Amino acid sequence: MPELQGDSVSGRTFDAIVIGSGMSGGWAAKEFTEKGLKTLVLERGRDVKHNVDYPTTNMFPYEFDHLGEIPLDEKKANPIINRCYAFKEDAAHFFVKDAEHPYIQDKPFDWIRGYQVGGKSLMWARATQRWSNFDFKGPARDGFAVDWPIRYKDIAPWYSHVEKFAGISGNKDGLRELPDGEFLPPFPLNAVEDYFKKHVSDKYPNRYVINERVAHLTKPEPIHLEQGRAKCQTRLLCQRGCPFGGYFSSNSSTLPWAARTGNLTLRPFSVVHSVIYDEQKGKATGVRVIDSNTKEMIEYFAKVIFVNAGALNSNLLLLNSTSHRFPNGLGNDNGIMGKFVAFHNYSARISARFDGLKQFKEVGRTVGGGYMPRFRNIFKQETDFLRGYACGFSAYRSRDSDSSGVGVSLKERLLHPELEKLGQWGVGSHMMGETIPKETNTVSLDTSKKMLGECLC
Amino acid sequence: MRRRTAIRDMIIFAGGATLLPSCLTRSEKVSIPLKKLKITVAQEKLLAEIASTIIPQTDTPGAKEVGAHLFALKMLDDCYEKTDQEKFLIGLAQLDDNAAKRFGDSFLDCNGKQRQELLESIEQNKDVSELAHFYEIMKDRTIEGYMNSKYVMTNLVIYELIPSMPYNGYAPA
To answer: Which of A60, A62, A211 is the mutation pick for testing B, counting most B CBs within 10 A?
Structure first.
Protein backbone atom coordinates (compact mmCIF):
# COMPACT_ATOMS: atom_id res chain seq x y z
CA MET A 1 0.00 0.00 0.00
CA PRO A 2 1.58 3.35 -0.98
CA GLU A 3 2.38 5.70 1.88
CA LEU A 4 0.78 9.11 1.87
CA GLN A 5 3.34 11.49 0.48
CA GLY A 6 4.33 14.82 1.93
CA ASP A 7 2.15 17.82 1.67
CA SER A 8 2.13 18.36 -2.06
CA VAL A 9 -1.21 18.59 -3.79
CA SER A 10 -0.12 15.87 -6.20
CA GLY A 11 0.63 13.62 -3.23
CA ARG A 12 -2.92 14.26 -2.08
CA THR A 13 -4.55 13.64 -5.44
CA PHE A 14 -6.06 10.30 -6.36
CA ASP A 15 -8.23 8.95 -9.13
CA ALA A 16 -11.03 8.17 -6.69
CA ILE A 17 -11.90 8.93 -3.08
CA VAL A 18 -14.16 6.57 -1.16
CA ILE A 19 -15.63 7.95 2.05
CA GLY A 20 -16.22 5.10 4.48
CA SER A 21 -14.84 1.56 4.58
CA GLY A 22 -17.92 -0.40 5.63
CA MET A 23 -20.04 -2.66 3.46
CA SER A 24 -20.42 -0.33 0.48
CA GLY A 25 -17.09 1.50 0.90
CA GLY A 26 -15.26 -1.81 0.77
CA TRP A 27 -17.06 -2.71 -2.45
CA ALA A 28 -16.33 0.68 -3.98
CA ALA A 29 -12.66 0.24 -3.09
CA LYS A 30 -12.57 -3.20 -4.71
CA GLU A 31 -14.23 -2.07 -7.92
CA PHE A 32 -12.16 1.09 -8.36
CA THR A 33 -8.78 -0.48 -7.57
CA GLU A 34 -9.45 -3.51 -9.77
CA LYS A 35 -10.09 -1.14 -12.67
CA GLY A 36 -6.75 0.52 -12.08
CA LEU A 37 -7.89 3.65 -10.27
CA LYS A 38 -5.61 4.93 -7.54
CA THR A 39 -8.10 4.99 -4.69
CA LEU A 40 -8.06 6.68 -1.32
CA VAL A 41 -10.39 5.11 1.24
CA LEU A 42 -11.12 7.41 4.17
CA GLU A 43 -12.30 5.87 7.42
CA ARG A 44 -13.17 7.96 10.45
CA GLY A 45 -12.25 5.25 12.96
CA ARG A 46 -9.24 3.09 13.63
CA ASP A 47 -7.89 0.35 11.40
CA VAL A 48 -9.15 -3.19 11.94
CA LYS A 49 -7.02 -5.63 10.00
CA HIS A 50 -8.47 -9.02 9.21
CA ASN A 51 -7.36 -11.51 11.85
CA VAL A 52 -4.84 -9.09 13.40
CA ASP A 53 -7.37 -6.85 15.10
CA TYR A 54 -9.97 -9.36 16.28
CA PRO A 55 -8.77 -9.46 19.90
CA THR A 56 -11.58 -11.66 21.22
CA THR A 57 -12.01 -14.02 18.30
CA ASN A 58 -10.41 -17.09 19.87
CA MET A 59 -11.31 -16.40 23.47
CA PHE A 60 -13.06 -19.00 25.60
CA PRO A 61 -16.04 -17.88 27.71
CA TYR A 62 -13.98 -17.96 30.91
CA GLU A 63 -11.46 -15.54 29.44
CA PHE A 64 -14.03 -12.73 29.57
CA ASP A 65 -14.32 -10.82 32.84
CA HIS A 66 -18.09 -11.21 32.96
CA LEU A 67 -18.67 -14.22 30.71
CA GLY A 68 -19.80 -11.86 27.97
CA GLU A 69 -22.20 -9.74 30.02
CA ILE A 70 -21.87 -5.95 29.82
CA PRO A 71 -21.36 -4.48 33.31
CA LEU A 72 -24.23 -2.39 34.69
CA ASP A 73 -22.40 0.97 34.64
CA GLU A 74 -21.52 0.47 30.99
CA LYS A 75 -25.12 -0.46 30.18
CA LYS A 76 -26.39 2.65 31.93
CA ALA A 77 -23.85 4.83 30.13
CA ASN A 78 -24.91 3.36 26.77
CA PRO A 79 -28.69 3.00 26.69
CA ILE A 80 -28.78 3.25 22.89
CA ILE A 81 -26.08 0.81 21.93
CA ASN A 82 -27.15 -1.55 24.68
CA ARG A 83 -30.37 -2.18 22.76
CA CYS A 84 -28.37 -3.89 20.00
CA TYR A 85 -28.34 -7.67 20.50
CA ALA A 86 -24.68 -7.96 19.51
CA PHE A 87 -23.43 -5.44 22.07
CA LYS A 88 -21.79 -7.92 24.45
CA GLU A 89 -18.41 -8.12 26.13
CA ASP A 90 -16.93 -10.00 23.15
CA ALA A 91 -17.73 -7.32 20.55
CA ALA A 92 -18.24 -4.12 22.56
CA HIS A 93 -15.02 -2.69 21.11
CA PHE A 94 -16.61 -2.59 17.64
CA PHE A 95 -19.55 -0.38 18.67
CA VAL A 96 -19.66 3.41 18.97
CA LYS A 97 -20.41 4.21 22.60
CA ASP A 98 -23.29 6.65 23.15
CA ALA A 99 -21.05 9.46 24.45
CA GLU A 100 -18.49 9.08 21.66
CA HIS A 101 -20.65 10.69 19.02
CA PRO A 102 -23.87 11.89 20.66
CA TYR A 103 -26.96 13.03 18.80
CA ILE A 104 -30.24 14.66 19.78
CA GLN A 105 -33.33 12.51 19.42
CA ASP A 106 -36.60 14.38 18.86
CA LYS A 107 -38.17 10.96 18.87
CA PRO A 108 -36.33 7.81 19.98
CA PHE A 109 -34.04 6.42 17.31
CA ASP A 110 -31.36 3.82 17.91
CA TRP A 111 -28.43 4.71 15.71
CA ILE A 112 -26.13 1.69 15.96
CA ARG A 113 -22.73 2.52 14.54
CA GLY A 114 -19.32 0.95 14.10
CA TYR A 115 -16.61 3.55 13.53
CA GLN A 116 -13.67 1.47 12.36
CA VAL A 117 -12.28 0.02 9.17
CA GLY A 118 -14.95 -2.42 8.04
CA GLY A 119 -17.66 -0.49 9.87
CA LYS A 120 -20.68 -2.59 10.71
CA SER A 121 -19.78 -5.23 8.11
CA LEU A 122 -17.94 -6.83 11.05
CA MET A 123 -21.05 -7.16 13.23
CA TRP A 124 -23.90 -7.35 10.75
CA ALA A 125 -26.55 -10.10 10.87
CA ARG A 126 -25.48 -11.53 7.47
CA ALA A 127 -28.93 -12.16 5.98
CA THR A 128 -28.84 -11.41 2.26
CA GLN A 129 -32.11 -11.63 0.32
CA ARG A 130 -32.63 -10.03 -3.06
CA TRP A 131 -35.32 -7.49 -3.76
CA SER A 132 -37.92 -8.42 -6.36
CA ASN A 133 -39.83 -6.41 -8.91
CA PHE A 134 -42.74 -6.30 -6.44
CA ASP A 135 -40.50 -4.26 -4.17
CA PHE A 136 -39.16 -2.01 -6.92
CA LYS A 137 -42.69 -1.39 -8.24
CA GLY A 138 -44.20 -0.65 -4.82
CA PRO A 139 -44.22 3.16 -5.04
CA ALA A 140 -45.47 3.12 -8.65
CA ARG A 141 -48.35 0.86 -7.68
CA ASP A 142 -49.58 2.46 -4.49
CA GLY A 143 -48.44 6.01 -5.24
CA PHE A 144 -46.64 6.34 -1.95
CA ALA A 145 -43.11 7.79 -2.11
CA VAL A 146 -41.08 8.17 -5.30
CA ASP A 147 -40.97 5.52 -8.01
CA TRP A 148 -37.67 3.68 -8.22
CA PRO A 149 -35.69 4.73 -11.30
CA ILE A 150 -34.68 1.10 -11.86
CA ARG A 151 -36.37 -2.28 -11.98
CA TYR A 152 -35.21 -5.72 -10.95
CA LYS A 153 -33.72 -6.55 -14.35
CA ASP A 154 -31.40 -3.55 -14.07
CA ILE A 155 -29.94 -4.65 -10.79
CA ALA A 156 -30.05 -8.46 -11.16
CA PRO A 157 -26.61 -8.76 -12.82
CA TRP A 158 -25.11 -6.65 -10.02
CA TYR A 159 -26.70 -8.86 -7.40
CA SER A 160 -24.96 -11.77 -9.13
CA HIS A 161 -21.68 -9.90 -9.32
CA VAL A 162 -21.71 -9.25 -5.58
CA GLU A 163 -23.07 -12.65 -4.55
CA LYS A 164 -20.41 -14.61 -6.45
CA PHE A 165 -17.61 -12.73 -4.72
CA ALA A 166 -19.14 -12.42 -1.26
CA GLY A 167 -20.37 -16.00 -1.08
CA ILE A 168 -24.06 -16.41 -0.27
CA SER A 169 -25.55 -19.70 0.85
CA GLY A 170 -29.11 -20.58 -0.10
CA ASN A 171 -31.47 -22.62 -2.24
CA LYS A 172 -32.85 -21.79 -5.62
CA ASP A 173 -36.49 -21.63 -4.56
CA GLY A 174 -37.99 -20.28 -7.79
CA LEU A 175 -40.11 -17.60 -6.13
CA ARG A 176 -41.12 -14.44 -7.95
CA GLU A 177 -41.26 -12.48 -4.70
CA LEU A 178 -37.70 -13.46 -3.75
CA PRO A 179 -35.56 -14.00 -6.82
CA ASP A 180 -32.86 -16.65 -6.82
CA GLY A 181 -29.19 -15.75 -6.86
CA GLU A 182 -25.73 -17.26 -7.16
CA PHE A 183 -25.79 -19.61 -4.22
CA LEU A 184 -23.44 -21.86 -2.30
CA PRO A 185 -25.20 -24.82 -0.64
CA PRO A 186 -27.70 -23.80 2.07
CA PHE A 187 -27.46 -24.52 5.77
CA PRO A 188 -29.92 -27.35 6.44
CA LEU A 189 -33.24 -26.86 8.20
CA ASN A 190 -34.15 -29.00 11.21
CA ALA A 191 -37.10 -31.34 11.63
CA VAL A 192 -39.52 -28.73 12.92
CA GLU A 193 -38.46 -26.05 10.44
CA ASP A 194 -39.06 -28.53 7.60
CA TYR A 195 -42.40 -29.49 9.14
CA PHE A 196 -43.44 -25.86 9.34
CA LYS A 197 -42.28 -25.30 5.76
CA LYS A 198 -44.47 -28.14 4.49
CA HIS A 199 -47.54 -27.15 6.48
CA VAL A 200 -47.36 -23.49 5.55
CA SER A 201 -47.21 -24.27 1.84
CA ASP A 202 -50.05 -26.84 2.19
CA LYS A 203 -52.33 -24.38 3.96
CA TYR A 204 -51.38 -21.06 2.34
CA PRO A 205 -50.82 -21.16 -1.43
CA ASN A 206 -48.65 -18.04 -1.58
CA ARG A 207 -46.58 -18.41 1.55
CA TYR A 208 -43.27 -20.17 1.65
CA VAL A 209 -40.69 -21.03 4.27
CA ILE A 210 -37.26 -21.30 2.69
CA ASN A 211 -33.69 -21.66 3.93
CA GLU A 212 -32.56 -18.18 4.87
CA ARG A 213 -29.95 -16.85 2.47
CA VAL A 214 -26.89 -15.77 4.41
CA ALA A 215 -23.43 -14.44 3.56
CA HIS A 216 -21.52 -17.49 4.78
CA LEU A 217 -19.13 -19.75 2.89
CA THR A 218 -20.72 -23.17 3.18
CA LYS A 219 -18.59 -24.49 0.32
CA PRO A 220 -15.95 -21.97 -0.74
CA GLU A 221 -15.33 -21.52 -4.45
CA PRO A 222 -11.86 -20.70 -5.85
CA ILE A 223 -12.74 -16.98 -5.80
CA HIS A 224 -13.26 -17.16 -2.02
CA LEU A 225 -10.09 -19.15 -1.36
CA GLU A 226 -8.24 -16.60 -3.44
CA GLN A 227 -9.44 -13.95 -0.99
CA GLY A 228 -7.84 -15.96 1.81
CA ARG A 229 -11.17 -17.06 3.19
CA ALA A 230 -12.24 -20.53 4.27
CA LYS A 231 -15.37 -22.51 5.01
CA CYS A 232 -17.66 -21.27 7.78
CA GLN A 233 -17.04 -23.43 10.84
CA THR A 234 -20.40 -22.48 12.46
CA ARG A 235 -18.65 -21.15 15.56
CA LEU A 236 -21.45 -18.57 15.84
CA LEU A 237 -18.97 -16.01 17.16
CA CYS A 238 -19.25 -13.86 14.01
CA GLN A 239 -19.53 -10.50 15.81
CA ARG A 240 -15.96 -10.92 17.05
CA GLY A 241 -14.58 -11.00 13.51
CA CYS A 242 -14.04 -14.41 11.91
CA PRO A 243 -10.52 -15.84 11.62
CA PHE A 244 -11.72 -18.03 8.74
CA GLY A 245 -13.42 -15.20 6.89
CA GLY A 246 -16.38 -17.57 7.04
CA TYR A 247 -18.84 -14.70 6.63
CA PHE A 248 -18.51 -11.69 4.39
CA SER A 249 -17.03 -8.49 5.78
CA SER A 250 -15.09 -5.65 4.18
CA ASN A 251 -12.16 -6.62 6.40
CA SER A 252 -11.96 -10.24 5.26
CA SER A 253 -12.90 -9.75 1.63
CA THR A 254 -13.13 -6.53 -0.37
CA LEU A 255 -10.51 -4.40 1.42
CA PRO A 256 -7.64 -6.94 1.35
CA TRP A 257 -8.59 -7.66 -2.27
CA ALA A 258 -8.36 -3.96 -3.08
CA ALA A 259 -5.04 -3.69 -1.22
CA ARG A 260 -3.52 -6.47 -3.33
CA THR A 261 -3.98 -4.43 -6.50
CA GLY A 262 -1.45 -1.90 -5.19
CA ASN A 263 -3.93 0.86 -5.96
CA LEU A 264 -5.41 1.27 -2.49
CA THR A 265 -4.50 3.86 0.09
CA LEU A 266 -6.44 3.34 3.28
CA ARG A 267 -6.44 6.25 5.69
CA PRO A 268 -8.02 5.53 9.09
CA PHE A 269 -8.64 8.27 11.73
CA SER A 270 -9.93 10.46 8.89
CA VAL A 271 -13.20 12.22 9.62
CA VAL A 272 -14.49 13.75 6.41
CA HIS A 273 -15.70 17.26 7.16
CA SER A 274 -17.11 18.17 3.75
CA VAL A 275 -16.89 17.70 0.04
CA ILE A 276 -15.03 20.53 -1.71
CA TYR A 277 -17.06 22.20 -4.44
CA ASP A 278 -15.09 24.18 -7.01
CA GLU A 279 -17.29 27.14 -7.98
CA GLN A 280 -15.30 27.80 -11.20
CA LYS A 281 -15.35 24.25 -12.47
CA GLY A 282 -18.85 23.63 -11.19
CA LYS A 283 -17.69 20.30 -9.80
CA ALA A 284 -16.90 18.53 -6.58
CA THR A 285 -13.12 18.24 -6.63
CA GLY A 286 -12.11 16.80 -3.30
CA VAL A 287 -12.79 16.43 0.40
CA ARG A 288 -11.72 18.12 3.62
CA VAL A 289 -10.57 15.62 6.19
CA ILE A 290 -9.91 16.14 9.87
CA ASP A 291 -7.26 13.80 11.21
CA SER A 292 -8.78 12.66 14.49
CA ASN A 293 -5.33 12.20 16.06
CA THR A 294 -3.64 15.46 15.05
CA LYS A 295 -6.91 17.48 14.66
CA GLU A 296 -5.34 18.85 11.50
CA MET A 297 -7.48 19.56 8.43
CA ILE A 298 -6.15 18.13 5.18
CA GLU A 299 -7.59 18.30 1.68
CA TYR A 300 -7.58 15.39 -0.76
CA PHE A 301 -8.54 15.57 -4.41
CA ALA A 302 -9.97 13.19 -6.97
CA LYS A 303 -12.15 13.12 -10.05
CA VAL A 304 -14.49 10.62 -8.45
CA ILE A 305 -15.79 11.09 -4.91
CA PHE A 306 -17.96 8.27 -3.62
CA VAL A 307 -19.85 8.89 -0.38
CA ASN A 308 -20.21 5.53 1.40
CA ALA A 309 -20.60 6.80 4.95
CA GLY A 310 -23.79 4.95 5.80
CA ALA A 311 -27.25 6.41 5.16
CA LEU A 312 -27.32 9.03 7.91
CA ASN A 313 -23.70 10.15 7.90
CA SER A 314 -23.72 10.40 4.10
CA ASN A 315 -26.70 12.77 4.31
CA LEU A 316 -25.09 14.73 7.12
CA LEU A 317 -21.81 15.02 5.25
CA LEU A 318 -23.53 16.43 2.17
CA LEU A 319 -25.55 18.83 4.34
CA ASN A 320 -22.28 20.01 5.85
CA SER A 321 -20.75 20.50 2.37
CA THR A 322 -21.95 24.05 1.80
CA SER A 323 -20.71 26.43 -0.87
CA HIS A 324 -21.85 29.61 -2.59
CA ARG A 325 -23.56 27.46 -5.21
CA PHE A 326 -25.04 25.01 -2.64
CA PRO A 327 -25.78 26.98 0.54
CA ASN A 328 -28.02 24.20 1.92
CA GLY A 329 -25.66 21.32 1.26
CA LEU A 330 -24.16 19.76 -1.82
CA GLY A 331 -26.81 18.87 -4.38
CA ASN A 332 -29.59 19.97 -2.04
CA ASP A 333 -31.40 22.40 -4.34
CA ASN A 334 -34.73 20.72 -3.63
CA GLY A 335 -34.25 20.76 0.15
CA ILE A 336 -34.96 17.05 0.43
CA MET A 337 -31.59 16.03 1.82
CA GLY A 338 -31.89 14.61 5.32
CA LYS A 339 -35.65 14.16 4.94
CA PHE A 340 -37.65 11.01 4.13
CA VAL A 341 -35.39 8.89 6.29
CA ALA A 342 -36.64 5.31 6.09
CA PHE A 343 -35.53 2.47 8.26
CA HIS A 344 -35.52 -1.29 8.30
CA ASN A 345 -37.98 -2.24 11.01
CA TYR A 346 -37.12 -5.56 12.60
CA SER A 347 -38.38 -5.33 16.15
CA ALA A 348 -41.50 -7.54 16.17
CA ARG A 349 -41.03 -11.03 17.57
CA ILE A 350 -43.19 -14.00 18.47
CA SER A 351 -42.39 -17.34 20.03
CA ALA A 352 -44.29 -20.54 20.72
CA ARG A 353 -43.93 -24.18 21.68
CA PHE A 354 -44.51 -27.12 19.38
CA ASP A 355 -45.63 -30.36 20.97
CA GLY A 356 -44.49 -32.89 18.40
CA LEU A 357 -41.57 -34.48 16.52
CA LYS A 358 -40.08 -35.43 19.85
CA GLN A 359 -38.14 -38.24 18.20
CA PHE A 360 -35.68 -35.61 16.93
CA LYS A 361 -33.23 -33.23 18.50
CA GLU A 362 -30.44 -30.97 17.26
CA VAL A 363 -26.73 -31.74 17.37
CA GLY A 364 -24.07 -29.16 16.53
CA ARG A 365 -24.53 -25.53 15.62
CA THR A 366 -26.02 -23.89 12.57
CA VAL A 367 -26.14 -20.44 11.09
CA GLY A 368 -29.24 -20.40 8.97
CA GLY A 369 -32.81 -21.18 9.84
CA GLY A 370 -35.98 -20.51 7.96
CA TYR A 371 -37.12 -17.38 6.18
CA MET A 372 -40.57 -16.41 4.96
CA PRO A 373 -40.40 -13.99 2.05
CA ARG A 374 -42.94 -11.19 2.01
CA PHE A 375 -46.39 -12.61 1.31
CA ARG A 376 -48.67 -9.61 1.91
CA ASN A 377 -49.89 -7.26 -0.84
CA ILE A 378 -47.80 -8.90 -3.52
CA PHE A 379 -50.19 -9.54 -6.36
CA LYS A 380 -52.87 -7.12 -5.16
CA GLN A 381 -53.46 -4.73 -2.29
CA GLU A 382 -55.25 -6.98 0.20
CA THR A 383 -54.66 -5.40 3.61
CA ASP A 384 -55.11 -1.96 5.16
CA PHE A 385 -51.35 -1.36 5.16
CA LEU A 386 -49.01 -0.82 2.23
CA ARG A 387 -46.29 -3.23 1.07
CA GLY A 388 -45.32 -6.15 3.29
CA TYR A 389 -42.93 -7.77 5.67
CA ALA A 390 -40.71 -10.84 5.75
CA CYS A 391 -40.17 -13.18 8.68
CA GLY A 392 -37.29 -15.17 10.04
CA PHE A 393 -38.35 -18.53 11.41
CA SER A 394 -36.36 -20.98 13.48
CA ALA A 395 -36.96 -23.90 15.80
CA TYR A 396 -34.88 -25.48 18.55
CA ARG A 397 -35.34 -28.44 20.85
CA SER A 398 -35.52 -27.21 24.43
CA ARG A 399 -34.15 -29.04 27.45
CA ASP A 400 -35.89 -29.49 30.76
CA SER A 401 -32.82 -28.58 32.76
CA ASP A 402 -33.20 -29.41 36.43
CA SER A 403 -30.91 -27.28 38.54
CA SER A 404 -32.92 -27.64 41.74
CA GLY A 405 -31.33 -28.55 45.04
CA VAL A 406 -27.67 -28.51 45.97
CA GLY A 407 -24.83 -30.98 46.47
CA VAL A 408 -23.55 -34.02 44.64
CA SER A 409 -26.82 -34.76 42.86
CA LEU A 410 -26.95 -31.22 41.42
CA LYS A 411 -23.34 -31.50 40.34
CA GLU A 412 -24.01 -34.78 38.54
CA ARG A 413 -26.98 -33.29 36.70
CA LEU A 414 -24.94 -30.23 35.65
CA LEU A 415 -22.04 -32.30 34.39
CA HIS A 416 -24.18 -34.68 32.33
CA PRO A 417 -26.35 -32.50 30.09
CA GLU A 418 -26.64 -35.50 27.76
CA LEU A 419 -28.80 -37.21 30.38
CA GLU A 420 -31.12 -34.22 30.65
CA LYS A 421 -34.70 -34.73 29.66
CA LEU A 422 -35.56 -33.01 26.42
CA GLY A 423 -38.42 -30.55 26.44
CA GLN A 424 -40.70 -29.46 23.64
CA TRP A 425 -39.51 -27.78 20.51
CA GLY A 426 -39.52 -24.02 20.74
CA VAL A 427 -40.19 -21.92 17.66
CA GLY A 428 -39.54 -18.25 17.13
CA SER A 429 -40.09 -15.69 14.44
CA HIS A 430 -39.11 -12.09 13.92
CA MET A 431 -40.63 -9.81 11.35
CA MET A 432 -38.90 -7.19 9.29
CA GLY A 433 -40.57 -4.63 7.15
CA GLU A 434 -39.98 -1.70 4.91
CA THR A 435 -40.72 1.62 6.59
CA ILE A 436 -42.21 3.91 4.00
CA PRO A 437 -40.37 7.22 3.63
CA LYS A 438 -42.10 10.24 5.15
CA GLU A 439 -40.95 13.81 4.88
CA THR A 440 -41.29 14.23 8.63
CA ASN A 441 -38.60 11.60 9.25
CA THR A 442 -35.55 13.81 9.20
CA VAL A 443 -31.96 14.05 10.25
CA SER A 444 -30.33 17.48 10.44
CA LEU A 445 -27.16 19.19 11.57
CA ASP A 446 -27.00 20.86 14.95
CA THR A 447 -24.74 23.76 14.01
CA SER A 448 -24.44 24.88 17.63
CA LYS A 449 -22.44 21.81 18.64
CA LYS A 450 -19.24 20.65 17.08
CA MET A 451 -16.97 17.75 17.69
CA LEU A 452 -13.72 17.60 15.74
CA GLY A 453 -15.00 20.53 13.67
CA GLU A 454 -17.88 18.37 12.57
CA CYS A 455 -21.44 19.36 13.41
CA LEU A 456 -23.40 16.97 15.58
CA CYS A 457 -26.99 16.14 14.69
CA MET B 1 16.77 -13.42 27.12
CA ARG B 2 18.57 -13.07 30.42
CA ARG B 3 17.07 -9.64 30.86
CA ARG B 4 13.60 -11.08 30.39
CA THR B 5 14.21 -13.74 33.04
CA ALA B 6 15.47 -11.08 35.41
CA ILE B 7 12.36 -8.99 34.89
CA ARG B 8 10.16 -12.01 35.40
CA ASP B 9 11.94 -12.91 38.62
CA MET B 10 11.63 -9.35 39.78
CA ILE B 11 7.88 -9.40 39.21
CA ILE B 12 7.55 -12.63 41.14
CA PHE B 13 9.66 -11.20 43.93
CA ALA B 14 7.70 -7.94 43.96
CA GLY B 15 4.49 -9.91 44.12
CA GLY B 16 5.82 -11.86 47.07
CA ALA B 17 6.86 -8.67 48.74
CA THR B 18 3.42 -7.13 48.48
CA LEU B 19 1.81 -10.29 49.77
CA LEU B 20 3.96 -10.53 52.84
CA PRO B 21 2.79 -7.53 54.86
CA SER B 22 -0.85 -8.36 54.30
CA CYS B 23 -0.28 -11.80 55.79
CA LEU B 24 1.50 -10.35 58.76
CA THR B 25 -1.02 -7.64 59.49
CA ARG B 26 -4.00 -9.90 58.71
CA SER B 27 -5.44 -7.04 56.72
CA GLU B 28 -8.99 -7.68 55.62
CA LYS B 29 -8.28 -8.05 51.93
CA VAL B 30 -10.38 -10.28 49.69
CA SER B 31 -8.89 -12.34 46.89
CA ILE B 32 -10.14 -10.22 43.99
CA PRO B 33 -10.26 -6.46 43.50
CA LEU B 34 -13.79 -5.11 43.92
CA LYS B 35 -14.95 -1.69 42.80
CA LYS B 36 -18.02 -1.08 44.91
CA LEU B 37 -18.62 -3.95 47.31
CA LYS B 38 -16.97 -4.00 50.69
CA ILE B 39 -16.48 -7.64 51.54
CA THR B 40 -14.60 -9.00 54.52
CA VAL B 41 -12.36 -12.02 54.46
CA ALA B 42 -14.90 -13.75 56.69
CA GLN B 43 -17.69 -13.05 54.21
CA GLU B 44 -15.55 -14.35 51.37
CA LYS B 45 -14.88 -17.53 53.30
CA LEU B 46 -18.57 -17.95 54.01
CA LEU B 47 -19.39 -17.50 50.30
CA ALA B 48 -16.72 -20.06 49.39
CA GLU B 49 -18.33 -22.63 51.70
CA ILE B 50 -21.83 -21.86 50.38
CA ALA B 51 -20.51 -22.36 46.84
CA SER B 52 -18.88 -25.57 47.99
CA THR B 53 -22.21 -26.77 49.39
CA ILE B 54 -24.03 -25.93 46.15
CA ILE B 55 -21.44 -27.78 44.02
CA PRO B 56 -19.11 -29.81 46.26
CA GLN B 57 -15.71 -31.25 45.52
CA THR B 58 -16.01 -34.93 44.65
CA ASP B 59 -13.38 -36.77 42.61
CA THR B 60 -13.38 -33.50 40.63
CA PRO B 61 -13.11 -29.91 41.91
CA GLY B 62 -16.27 -28.18 43.07
CA ALA B 63 -17.45 -24.58 42.83
CA LYS B 64 -15.10 -23.32 45.55
CA GLU B 65 -12.06 -24.96 43.96
CA VAL B 66 -12.69 -23.33 40.57
CA GLY B 67 -13.37 -19.95 42.20
CA ALA B 68 -17.06 -19.76 41.26
CA HIS B 69 -17.80 -17.80 44.45
CA LEU B 70 -15.29 -15.16 43.35
CA PHE B 71 -17.01 -15.01 39.98
CA ALA B 72 -20.33 -14.49 41.80
CA LEU B 73 -18.74 -11.67 43.79
CA LYS B 74 -17.32 -10.04 40.69
CA MET B 75 -20.69 -10.19 38.94
CA LEU B 76 -22.42 -8.79 42.02
CA ASP B 77 -19.88 -5.97 42.09
CA ASP B 78 -20.09 -5.07 38.38
CA CYS B 79 -23.48 -6.16 37.07
CA TYR B 80 -26.05 -5.44 39.81
CA GLU B 81 -27.84 -2.42 41.22
CA LYS B 82 -26.80 -1.08 44.61
CA THR B 83 -30.07 -2.30 46.12
CA ASP B 84 -29.33 -5.84 44.92
CA GLN B 85 -25.85 -5.63 46.43
CA GLU B 86 -27.26 -4.45 49.77
CA LYS B 87 -29.91 -7.15 49.84
CA PHE B 88 -27.28 -9.73 48.96
CA LEU B 89 -25.14 -8.82 51.97
CA ILE B 90 -28.13 -8.65 54.31
CA GLY B 91 -29.26 -12.04 53.00
CA LEU B 92 -25.81 -13.47 53.55
CA ALA B 93 -25.90 -12.38 57.20
CA GLN B 94 -29.42 -13.81 57.56
CA LEU B 95 -28.16 -17.13 56.26
CA ASP B 96 -25.61 -17.28 59.06
CA ASP B 97 -28.31 -16.27 61.60
CA ASN B 98 -30.54 -19.05 60.26
CA ALA B 99 -27.74 -21.55 60.75
CA ALA B 100 -27.36 -20.42 64.36
CA LYS B 101 -31.12 -20.62 65.01
CA ARG B 102 -31.43 -24.00 63.42
CA PHE B 103 -28.26 -25.79 64.44
CA GLY B 104 -26.83 -23.56 67.16
CA ASP B 105 -23.73 -22.97 65.08
CA SER B 106 -22.50 -20.55 62.47
CA PHE B 107 -22.68 -21.86 58.88
CA LEU B 108 -18.93 -22.52 58.90
CA ASP B 109 -19.25 -24.62 62.03
CA CYS B 110 -22.11 -26.68 60.65
CA ASN B 111 -21.32 -30.05 59.12
CA GLY B 112 -21.87 -30.79 55.44
CA LYS B 113 -25.28 -32.35 55.95
CA GLN B 114 -26.51 -29.37 57.98
CA ARG B 115 -25.18 -26.91 55.41
CA GLN B 116 -26.98 -28.72 52.61
CA GLU B 117 -30.20 -28.94 54.60
CA LEU B 118 -30.08 -25.21 55.32
CA LEU B 119 -29.56 -24.22 51.66
CA GLU B 120 -32.30 -26.56 50.49
CA SER B 121 -34.75 -25.13 53.01
CA ILE B 122 -33.96 -21.61 51.75
CA GLU B 123 -34.49 -22.76 48.17
CA GLN B 124 -37.85 -24.33 48.97
CA ASN B 125 -39.03 -21.40 51.04
CA LYS B 126 -39.61 -19.06 48.11
CA ASP B 127 -40.35 -15.62 49.52
CA VAL B 128 -39.33 -12.04 48.91
CA SER B 129 -36.85 -11.83 51.77
CA GLU B 130 -33.28 -10.62 51.37
CA LEU B 131 -32.23 -14.19 52.14
CA ALA B 132 -34.16 -15.55 49.14
CA HIS B 133 -32.75 -12.76 46.97
CA PHE B 134 -29.24 -13.54 48.10
CA TYR B 135 -29.72 -17.24 47.50
CA GLU B 136 -31.08 -16.80 44.00
CA ILE B 137 -28.16 -14.64 42.87
CA MET B 138 -25.59 -16.77 44.66
CA LYS B 139 -26.87 -20.05 43.30
CA ASP B 140 -27.34 -18.88 39.70
CA ARG B 141 -23.97 -17.19 39.54
CA THR B 142 -22.19 -20.08 41.28
CA ILE B 143 -23.57 -22.54 38.73
CA GLU B 144 -22.75 -20.16 35.89
CA GLY B 145 -19.21 -19.56 37.16
CA TYR B 146 -18.64 -23.26 37.71
CA MET B 147 -20.00 -24.44 34.35
CA ASN B 148 -18.05 -21.73 32.53
CA SER B 149 -14.83 -22.24 34.46
CA LYS B 150 -11.71 -23.24 32.62
CA TYR B 151 -11.58 -26.51 34.54
CA VAL B 152 -15.09 -27.63 33.64
CA MET B 153 -14.93 -26.36 30.07
CA THR B 154 -11.65 -28.10 29.33
CA ASN B 155 -12.10 -31.29 31.38
CA LEU B 156 -15.71 -32.14 32.08
CA VAL B 157 -18.23 -30.53 29.75
CA ILE B 158 -15.94 -29.58 26.88
CA TYR B 159 -16.54 -26.22 25.21
CA GLU B 160 -15.55 -26.26 21.57
CA LEU B 161 -14.65 -22.99 19.87
CA ILE B 162 -15.20 -24.90 16.64
CA PRO B 163 -17.91 -27.52 16.92
CA SER B 164 -16.57 -30.98 16.07
CA MET B 165 -19.98 -32.38 15.12
CA PRO B 166 -21.65 -31.13 11.95
CA TYR B 167 -25.15 -29.78 12.47
CA ASN B 168 -27.92 -32.34 12.41
CA GLY B 169 -31.47 -31.14 12.85
CA TYR B 170 -32.79 -34.72 12.69
CA ALA B 171 -30.63 -36.35 15.35
CA PRO B 172 -32.42 -39.15 17.19
CA ALA B 173 -33.69 -37.85 20.53
So the answer is: A62
